[in-house]
Design goal:
single chain; alpha/beta; Rossmann fold; 2 domains; four-stranded parallel sheet; 50% helix
Protein backbone atom coordinates (compact mmCIF):
# COMPACT_ATOMS: atom_id res chain seq x y z
CA UNK A 1 0.00 0.00 0.00
CA UNK A 2 1.40 3.41 -0.95
CA UNK A 3 1.87 6.21 1.57
CA UNK A 4 0.73 9.75 0.59
CA UNK A 5 3.72 11.21 2.44
CA UNK A 6 6.17 9.06 0.45
CA UNK A 7 7.27 9.92 -3.10
CA UNK A 8 5.47 8.50 -6.09
CA UNK A 9 7.41 7.55 -9.23
CA UNK A 10 5.73 8.04 -12.59
CA UNK A 11 7.54 6.24 -15.44
CA UNK A 12 6.66 8.01 -18.68
CA UNK A 13 6.98 6.25 -22.01
CA UNK A 14 6.15 7.56 -25.47
CA UNK A 15 2.82 5.81 -25.97
CA UNK A 16 1.13 3.41 -28.35
CA UNK A 17 -2.12 3.07 -30.29
CA UNK A 18 -4.90 1.36 -28.34
CA UNK A 19 -5.29 -1.26 -31.10
CA UNK A 20 -3.51 -2.30 -34.32
CA UNK A 21 -6.21 -0.71 -36.48
CA UNK A 22 -6.22 2.25 -38.85
CA UNK A 23 -8.65 4.32 -36.71
CA UNK A 24 -6.59 3.73 -33.55
CA UNK A 25 -3.33 4.55 -35.33
CA UNK A 26 -4.95 7.68 -36.83
CA UNK A 27 -5.96 8.82 -33.34
CA UNK A 28 -2.46 8.19 -31.99
CA UNK A 29 -0.68 9.90 -34.89
CA UNK A 30 -2.98 12.91 -34.70
CA UNK A 31 -1.84 13.55 -31.12
CA UNK A 32 1.80 12.61 -31.68
CA UNK A 33 2.32 14.63 -34.86
CA UNK A 34 0.44 17.66 -33.49
CA UNK A 35 3.06 18.10 -30.77
CA UNK A 36 5.24 21.10 -31.75
CA UNK A 37 8.20 19.44 -30.03
CA UNK A 38 7.97 16.65 -32.63
CA UNK A 39 6.99 18.67 -35.71
CA UNK A 40 7.64 22.38 -35.29
CA UNK A 41 6.35 23.65 -38.62
CA UNK A 42 3.84 26.53 -38.33
CA UNK A 43 0.42 25.11 -37.48
CA UNK A 44 -1.25 26.93 -40.37
CA UNK A 45 1.06 25.01 -42.71
CA UNK A 46 1.38 21.69 -40.93
CA UNK A 47 -2.17 20.91 -39.79
CA UNK A 48 -3.73 20.94 -43.29
CA UNK A 49 -0.95 18.59 -44.47
CA UNK A 50 -1.40 16.36 -41.43
CA UNK A 51 -5.20 16.19 -41.56
CA UNK A 52 -5.56 16.28 -45.32
CA UNK A 53 -2.83 13.86 -46.42
CA UNK A 54 -0.81 12.10 -43.73
CA UNK A 55 -3.69 10.97 -41.50
CA UNK A 56 -5.46 9.59 -44.54
CA UNK A 57 -2.59 7.69 -46.12
CA UNK A 58 -0.30 6.50 -43.34
CA UNK A 59 -2.58 4.84 -40.73
CA UNK A 60 -3.48 1.70 -42.77
CA UNK A 61 0.19 0.98 -43.52
CA UNK A 62 1.30 1.62 -39.94
CA UNK A 63 -1.60 -0.43 -38.57
CA UNK A 64 -0.40 -3.33 -40.72
CA UNK A 65 3.05 -3.03 -39.10
CA UNK A 66 1.51 -2.94 -35.62
CA UNK A 67 -0.48 -6.10 -36.36
CA UNK A 68 2.81 -7.86 -37.10
CA UNK A 69 4.07 -7.22 -33.55
CA UNK A 70 0.83 -7.17 -31.52
CA UNK A 71 0.53 -9.86 -28.88
CA UNK A 72 -2.29 -11.57 -27.02
CA UNK A 73 -1.60 -9.13 -24.18
CA UNK A 74 -1.78 -6.09 -26.47
CA UNK A 75 0.84 -3.54 -27.42
CA UNK A 76 4.41 -4.73 -26.63
CA UNK A 77 5.36 -1.23 -25.48
CA UNK A 78 2.47 -1.02 -23.05
CA UNK A 79 2.92 -4.51 -21.61
CA UNK A 80 6.67 -3.94 -21.21
CA UNK A 81 6.11 -0.61 -19.46
CA UNK A 82 3.64 -2.24 -17.11
CA UNK A 83 6.15 -4.99 -16.32
CA UNK A 84 8.69 -2.31 -15.47
CA UNK A 85 6.21 -0.66 -13.10
CA UNK A 86 5.63 -3.97 -11.31
CA UNK A 87 9.38 -4.65 -11.03
CA UNK A 88 10.23 -1.15 -9.80
CA UNK A 89 7.35 -1.24 -7.31
CA UNK A 90 8.89 -4.39 -5.84
CA UNK A 91 12.29 -2.68 -5.58
CA UNK A 92 11.35 0.65 -3.92
CA UNK A 93 10.92 1.10 -0.17
CA UNK A 94 7.55 0.35 1.38
CA UNK A 95 5.06 3.13 0.86
CA UNK A 96 6.58 4.48 -2.36
CA UNK A 97 4.17 4.28 -5.27
CA UNK A 98 4.98 3.60 -8.92
CA UNK A 99 2.77 4.30 -11.93
CA UNK A 100 3.06 4.44 -15.71
CA UNK A 101 1.96 7.30 -17.95
CA UNK A 102 2.33 8.01 -21.65
CA UNK A 103 3.17 11.21 -23.48
CA UNK A 104 0.65 10.26 -26.14
CA UNK A 105 -2.28 8.02 -25.38
CA UNK A 106 -3.70 6.67 -22.13
CA UNK A 107 -3.17 7.03 -19.25
CA UNK A 108 -1.87 10.54 -19.77
CA UNK A 109 0.00 12.60 -17.20
CA UNK A 110 -3.20 14.60 -16.68
CA UNK A 111 -5.06 11.45 -15.66
CA UNK A 112 -2.26 10.20 -13.38
CA UNK A 113 -1.74 13.61 -11.74
CA UNK A 114 -5.44 14.03 -11.00
CA UNK A 115 -5.40 10.65 -9.22
CA UNK A 116 -2.29 11.60 -7.24
CA UNK A 117 -3.79 14.99 -6.33
CA UNK A 118 -6.93 13.25 -5.07
CA UNK A 119 -4.75 10.89 -3.01
CA UNK A 120 -2.90 13.96 -1.59
CA UNK A 121 0.49 12.55 -2.61
CA UNK A 122 3.15 14.82 -1.21
CA UNK A 123 5.88 14.38 -3.85
CA UNK A 124 5.74 13.15 -7.45
CA UNK A 125 8.86 12.18 -9.39
CA UNK A 126 8.41 11.97 -13.15
CA UNK A 127 10.94 9.80 -14.98
CA UNK A 128 11.07 10.04 -18.78
CA UNK A 129 12.13 6.64 -20.14
CA UNK A 130 14.58 8.26 -22.58
CA UNK A 131 18.25 8.28 -21.46
CA UNK A 132 19.33 10.35 -24.50
CA UNK A 133 17.85 13.81 -24.02
CA UNK A 134 16.15 15.85 -26.72
CA UNK A 135 13.17 18.16 -26.86
CA UNK A 136 11.19 15.66 -28.95
CA UNK A 137 11.23 13.02 -26.19
CA UNK A 138 12.37 13.92 -22.66
CA UNK A 139 11.83 17.62 -23.35
CA UNK A 140 8.20 17.34 -24.37
CA UNK A 141 7.50 15.09 -21.37
CA UNK A 142 8.89 17.73 -18.99
CA UNK A 143 6.85 20.45 -20.70
CA UNK A 144 3.67 18.41 -20.41
CA UNK A 145 4.56 17.51 -16.81
CA UNK A 146 4.60 21.17 -15.81
CA UNK A 147 1.35 21.94 -17.61
CA UNK A 148 -0.46 18.87 -16.27
CA UNK A 149 0.81 19.45 -12.72
CA UNK A 150 -0.50 23.02 -12.82
CA UNK A 151 -3.89 21.82 -14.05
CA UNK A 152 -4.03 19.24 -11.23
CA UNK A 153 -2.96 21.81 -8.62
CA UNK A 154 0.20 19.94 -7.62
CA UNK A 155 2.88 21.99 -9.41
CA UNK A 156 4.92 22.51 -6.25
CA UNK A 157 5.03 18.75 -5.59
CA UNK A 158 6.26 17.54 -8.98
CA UNK A 159 9.81 17.21 -10.27
CA UNK A 160 11.55 15.40 -13.13
CA UNK A 161 14.47 13.02 -12.71
CA UNK A 162 16.39 11.33 -15.49
CA UNK A 163 18.26 8.14 -16.27
CA UNK A 164 21.66 9.41 -17.42
CA UNK A 165 22.99 8.27 -20.82
CA UNK A 166 25.83 6.37 -19.12
CA UNK A 167 23.98 5.43 -15.94
CA UNK A 168 25.57 2.37 -14.36
CA UNK A 169 22.36 0.36 -14.07
CA UNK A 170 21.17 1.26 -17.56
CA UNK A 171 24.51 0.29 -19.11
CA UNK A 172 24.59 -2.82 -16.96
CA UNK A 173 21.18 -3.82 -18.32
CA UNK A 174 22.36 -3.26 -21.91
CA UNK A 175 25.41 -5.41 -21.17
CA UNK A 176 23.21 -8.12 -19.67
CA UNK A 177 21.02 -8.22 -22.78
CA UNK A 178 24.13 -8.29 -24.99
CA UNK A 179 25.71 -11.19 -23.13
CA UNK A 180 22.49 -13.19 -23.24
CA UNK A 181 22.28 -12.60 -26.99
CA UNK A 182 25.90 -13.54 -27.70
CA UNK A 183 25.56 -16.67 -25.59
CA UNK A 184 22.65 -17.75 -27.80
CA UNK A 185 23.57 -16.38 -31.24
CA UNK A 186 27.36 -16.09 -31.14
CA UNK A 187 29.58 -13.06 -31.52
CA UNK A 188 28.80 -10.92 -34.59
CA UNK A 189 31.26 -9.58 -37.13
CA UNK A 190 29.91 -6.05 -36.75
CA UNK A 191 27.77 -4.18 -34.23
CA UNK A 192 25.28 -1.45 -35.17
CA UNK A 193 24.16 0.84 -32.34
CA UNK A 194 20.88 2.32 -33.57
CA UNK A 195 19.17 5.32 -31.97
CA UNK A 196 15.97 7.07 -32.96
CA UNK A 197 16.78 9.88 -35.36
CA UNK A 198 15.79 13.53 -35.05
CA UNK A 199 16.01 16.38 -37.59
CA UNK A 200 19.55 17.67 -37.91
CA UNK A 201 18.46 21.23 -37.10
CA UNK A 202 16.86 20.02 -33.83
CA UNK A 203 20.22 18.64 -32.70
CA UNK A 204 22.05 21.82 -33.72
CA UNK A 205 19.49 24.00 -31.96
CA UNK A 206 19.92 21.98 -28.74
CA UNK A 207 23.71 22.29 -28.80
CA UNK A 208 24.10 18.68 -30.01
CA UNK A 209 23.01 17.39 -26.63
CA UNK A 210 21.25 14.41 -28.19
CA UNK A 211 24.19 13.22 -30.26
CA UNK A 212 26.52 13.73 -27.28
CA UNK A 213 24.23 11.56 -25.16
CA UNK A 214 24.07 8.89 -27.89
CA UNK A 215 27.87 8.88 -28.04
CA UNK A 216 28.16 8.69 -24.24
CA UNK A 217 25.85 5.67 -24.12
CA UNK A 218 27.68 3.94 -26.96
CA UNK A 219 31.14 4.51 -25.50
CA UNK A 220 30.10 3.32 -22.03
CA UNK A 221 28.50 0.22 -23.55
CA UNK A 222 31.50 -0.60 -25.74
CA UNK A 223 33.89 -0.23 -22.80
CA UNK A 224 31.72 -2.52 -20.68
CA UNK A 225 31.67 -5.29 -23.30
CA UNK A 226 35.29 -4.68 -24.43
CA UNK A 227 34.16 -4.23 -28.02
CA UNK A 228 36.30 -2.32 -30.57
CA UNK A 229 35.00 0.88 -32.16
CA UNK A 230 36.43 -0.34 -35.47
CA UNK A 231 33.68 -2.99 -35.57
CA UNK A 232 30.90 -0.60 -34.51
CA UNK A 233 28.67 1.86 -36.34
CA UNK A 234 26.38 4.38 -34.64
CA UNK A 235 23.30 4.96 -36.80
CA UNK A 236 19.87 6.60 -36.61
CA UNK A 237 16.50 5.17 -37.58
CA UNK A 238 12.81 6.05 -38.04
CA UNK A 239 13.21 9.13 -40.23
CA UNK A 240 10.02 11.02 -41.00
CA UNK A 241 9.56 13.86 -43.47
CA UNK A 242 11.75 15.40 -46.20
CA UNK A 243 14.28 17.45 -44.23
CA UNK A 244 17.79 16.21 -43.29
CA UNK A 245 17.97 14.02 -40.18
CA UNK A 246 20.91 12.68 -38.21
CA UNK A 247 23.00 10.25 -40.21
CA UNK A 248 24.00 7.66 -41.15
CA UNK A 249 20.60 6.04 -41.51
CA UNK A 250 20.35 2.59 -39.92
CA UNK A 251 18.64 1.10 -42.98
CA UNK A 252 21.44 2.31 -45.27
CA UNK A 253 24.13 1.03 -42.89
CA UNK A 254 22.52 -2.43 -42.69
CA UNK A 255 22.31 -2.74 -46.47
CA UNK A 256 25.88 -1.53 -46.94
CA UNK A 257 27.26 -4.03 -44.41
CA UNK A 258 25.60 -6.85 -46.32
CA UNK A 259 27.03 -5.63 -49.62
CA UNK A 260 30.51 -5.36 -48.06
CA UNK A 261 30.50 -9.02 -47.16
CA UNK A 262 29.75 -8.80 -43.44
CA UNK A 263 28.20 -12.16 -42.64
CA UNK A 264 26.84 -11.61 -39.14
CA UNK A 265 25.58 -8.27 -37.85
CA UNK A 266 24.07 -7.47 -34.46
CA UNK A 267 21.90 -4.43 -33.78
CA UNK A 268 21.40 -2.94 -30.33
CA UNK A 269 18.88 -0.11 -29.82
CA UNK A 270 19.77 1.65 -26.54
CA UNK A 271 17.38 4.57 -27.04
CA UNK A 272 14.37 2.27 -26.84
CA UNK A 273 14.05 1.15 -23.23
CA UNK A 274 11.04 -1.00 -24.13
CA UNK A 275 10.26 -3.00 -27.24
CA UNK A 276 7.93 -1.41 -29.76
CA UNK A 277 7.32 -0.89 -33.43
CA UNK A 278 10.79 0.60 -33.98
CA UNK A 279 12.63 -2.38 -32.50
CA UNK A 280 10.42 -5.34 -33.32
CA UNK A 281 9.23 -4.39 -36.82
CA UNK A 282 11.64 -1.76 -38.15
CA UNK A 283 14.79 -3.54 -36.92
CA UNK A 284 13.69 -7.10 -36.21
CA UNK A 285 11.80 -7.53 -39.49
CA UNK A 286 12.60 -4.91 -42.12
CA UNK A 287 16.29 -4.41 -41.28
CA UNK A 288 16.80 -8.15 -41.08
CA UNK A 289 15.22 -8.63 -44.50
CA UNK A 290 17.37 -5.83 -45.95
CA UNK A 291 20.56 -7.34 -44.55
CA UNK A 292 19.87 -10.76 -46.01
CA UNK A 293 18.66 -9.35 -49.33
CA UNK A 294 22.02 -7.58 -49.67
CA UNK A 295 24.22 -10.60 -49.01
CA UNK A 296 24.26 -10.89 -45.22
CA UNK A 297 23.80 -14.27 -43.55
CA UNK A 298 22.99 -13.89 -39.85
CA UNK A 299 21.11 -10.97 -38.29
CA UNK A 300 20.87 -10.62 -34.52
CA UNK A 301 18.75 -8.10 -32.64
CA UNK A 302 19.62 -7.39 -29.00
CA UNK A 303 16.55 -7.07 -26.80
CA UNK A 304 15.58 -3.82 -25.08
CA UNK A 305 16.53 -3.48 -21.41
CA UNK A 306 12.91 -3.30 -20.16
CA UNK A 307 12.65 -4.77 -16.64
CA UNK A 308 16.24 -6.06 -16.44
CA UNK A 309 17.23 -6.09 -12.79
CA UNK A 310 20.05 -3.57 -13.28
CA UNK A 311 17.70 -1.10 -14.97
CA UNK A 312 15.10 -1.62 -12.28
CA UNK A 313 17.66 -0.78 -9.57
CA UNK A 314 18.49 2.50 -11.29
CA UNK A 315 14.86 3.46 -11.64
CA UNK A 316 14.11 2.56 -8.03
CA UNK A 317 17.06 4.67 -6.87
CA UNK A 318 15.41 7.77 -8.33
CA UNK A 319 12.85 7.64 -5.50
CA UNK A 320 15.55 8.41 -2.95
CA UNK A 321 15.80 11.93 -1.50
Amino acid sequence: MTNPSAPHLVLVNLGTPRAPTAPAVREFLAEFLSDPAVVDYPMWLWQPMLRGVILRRRPPRIAHAYRAIWTADGSPLRTATERMVVAVQAAVPAGVGVSAAYRYGHPSLDVVFRCLAKAKTSRVIVVPLFPQRTGATSGTIVTLMREAAARAGIASRVEARFVAPADEGYIGALVGRWRDTVATCGEPDHLVVSFHGIPLRFDRREGRQYTRDCTATTQAFLRAIAWPESRTTIAFQSKFGPEPWLSPATAAVIKDLGRRGVRHVAVVTPGFVTEGLETLEEIGMRAQDDFRANGGAQFTRVRAVEAHEAMVRSLAALARP
